Amino acid sequence: MKKIFTVLVLLFTATNFWSQRSQIIAYIDMEYILENVPEYMQAQNTLDTKIAKWKNNLDKQERHIEVLKSDLANEKAILTKDLIEEKEEEIEIKQVELRRLESLYFGPNGNMFLVRKQLVKPIQDQVYNAIQSIAARKKYDFVFDKSSELVMLYSNKKYDISELVLSSIDRTRLSEEKKEKINKRSEIPTEDLTERQKDLIEIREEAKDKKVEAIEKRVEENKAKKVAIAEKRADLIKKREEQRKILREKKKRLEKERRGKKENN
């Protein structure tokens, strides 16, 4: 109903404009255009792979939480109050971590948004720039997207400028590739460089190496931190197991003492 209302409003507006002067209208099929831009399909495949990986991580965390809940429900009758609270706290921590990961991956400013912005948006911008350029050159008053939510009750193929947009994108790509080739050809051979130019190149290479070293150092530091956290967690688990063992032994001893008292009585 909402779509029909939108179409009626647009038709009414177009009719209003038509009474003043002739309007030139065109349309594009955005899905068709993007499917025929190789860079977009590569970017979309990369994004889909990352999304599948993130969803898999969340599924693993969720299954682990369900296992912890099930184990607690089965063991609750034989656990002490402290151990029950400890397990409940562990489950709560895992649930908070799961929500944090969900937000990190799929939140408003999460990884999916950032990766899409990095990979897909530049290509979409390229398409929109091509549309605007063609619309300005051909003097179109309106350019509609056939694949959007707007319902097109009829569309004449001669007003479809999708192929024109693709041709414009191809020309831009070829122009950029040509410039890149010219720049490569215009590079000065190493033997023709002056000593000062060679020194500058060497300084830049050293700066790059230092930057790489700094990044590698940060990676190693992060690895060391992760190892330290893992060791700390292992120690905590070991201590918990020891406490549980002590509690079990204490429980057995108390049970044995109670049975001994009953036999004496």
TrEMBL record:
Coiled coil: 51-104, 190-264
GO terms under cellular component: cytosol
Pfam families named among the record's database cross-references: OmpH
UniProt keyword terms in alphabetical order: Coiled coil, Signal
InterPro entries per record: Chaperone_Skp (IPR005632), Skp_dom_sf (IPR024930)
GO MF term set: unfolded protein binding
Keyword set includes Transmembrane helix: no
Any single GO BP term: protein stabilization
Family named by the database record: Belongs to the Skp family.
Protein name per the record: Outer membrane chaperone Skp
Species: Polaribacter filamentus
